Amino acid sequence: MEINNVLITDAVDQACINLLKENGINVDCKYNLPQEKLLEEISDYDGLIVRSDTKVTSKVLAAGTNLKVVGRAGAGVDNIDVKEATKRNIVVLNTPGGNAISACELTCTLITALARNVVQGAASLKAGRWDRKLYSGHEIYGKVLGIVGLGRIGREVAIRMQAWGMKTVGYDPIVSAEEAAKFNVKFLELDEIWPIADYITLHTPLLPETANMINSNVLAKCKKGVKVINVARGGIIDEEALLRALEDGKCGGAGLDVFEQEPPTNPVTLKLIQNAKVVATPHLGASTSEAQIRVAVEVAEQFIALTNRNQKYSSVAGV
Ligand code: NAD
Ligand code: MLT
């Protein structure tokens, strides 16, 4: 496949740009392009590289009359109209796994931070208060962690939280009970997880089957005080239902890295972020130097492999 001109529209690590250039591919980086500008310019390129900010809609794909490949420097391809790309014979590729450890580590950080009110306590102390009683927490030792989605990230979270003494249960439609047992997760149906989990962590893609998976019906089935963590995708949780559950005490806290709308402007999401029991981060799951280098190199190497060039490999590929 001929790939000579690549447009990068979301900030990816320089390693990607260097590697493409070293392999004779021309690269233009134009970050934060408004959609109209992208529509105007995309026909100049045969390759496009994005993270999650650029929405590669059917319009973009239609305007990309020379487009042969769209690369996602990351795991989720929900910002790319994959169906439309397939119709147009445009290859869509991603870098699953490159940022899994980083997303897993942020998940574990949110679980432990929620247990001990770390963020709220630190903010209160910085504001000049000494609220020891108010921010007393609980141990996670012996608590039940329900993991929805036992793929790359879900199973890494399980292994790490087991080291803290958590009991791990989980569900995934393509993972058997035998497979889950290999990483010490007890496989249960979702309806068996809701009433026993002290913490629920989500690690599925956003699909029609997972959209609003955590909704008011599900929250009603959960333990009082359940804590919910989402480092997967906005839209898997019904934000209005979660907000209500936090306000009425059914939900004891939430750790949220992803939102229905990013950056969030809608009132429900903003209220959720402001809720005292919520620890919210601005989609930082993959934002580590290691993960960004890995996904940058992986996406570039896949582009080069498509061109059948005699590939020059990155010196940082082993990060
Ligand atoms: P993965 O493909 O390895 O695992 C996802 C798992 O979810 C699969 O095993 C799949 O079978 C399972 N699944 C699908 N539908 C399900 C359902 N209805 N119920 C339960 N499980 C279901 O993906 P991953 O690398 O582990 O990533 C998981 C999610 O995390 C993706 O959405 C990805 O985009 C997101 N992610 C977010 C960040 C971030 O910055 N916050 C970083 C990396 C990944
Ligand atoms: C992903 O799906 O890989 C994440 O959302 C990370 C990202 O692109 O920042």
Could you characterize what this model shows?
The protein has about 325 residues and is α/β, with parallel strands linked by helices. Helix content is about 35%, strand content about 15%. It contains 13 helices and twelve strands. Strands 8-7-6-9-10-11-12 form a seven-stranded parallel beta sheet, with helices on both faces. Strands 2-1-3-4-5 form a five-stranded parallel beta sheet. α1 links the parallel β1 (about 5-10) and β2 (about 25-30). The longest helix has 18 residues, at about 290-305. The model has no long low-confidence stretch (mean pLDDT about 95).
Summarize the structure.
The protein has helices spanning 14-22, 35-41, 58-63, 82-87, 100-116, 118-126, 152-163, 177-182, 190-193, 216-221, 239-247, 267-274, 289-306; strands at residues 5-8, 26-29, 47-50, 69-72, 91-94, 144-148, 167-171, 186-187, 199-202, 226-230, 251-256, 278-280.
Structure annotation, total helices: 13
Please summarize the sheet with the most strands: 7 strands, parallel
What is the radius of gyration?
Answer: 21 Å
Content-based structural category: alpha/beta
| SSE sequence, one letter per element | EHEHEHEHEHHEHEHEHEHEHEHEH
Determine the oligomeric state from the structure: single chain
First-residue to last-residue Cα separation: 28 Å
Q: Which residue ranges are poorly predicted, with pLDDT under 50 across at least 5 consecutive positions?
A: none
Spatial shape:
elongated
| Strands, count | 12
Q: What portion of residues is helical?
A: 25-40%
Strand order of the largest sheet: 8-7-6-9-10-11-12
Mean pLDDT score, rounded? 96
Subunit structure: Homotetramer.
Keywords: Acetylation, NAD, Oxidoreductase, Phosphoprotein
Domain D-isomer specific 2-hydroxyacid dehydrogenase catalytic: 6-309
Domain D-isomer specific 2-hydroxyacid dehydrogenase NAD-binding: 109-285
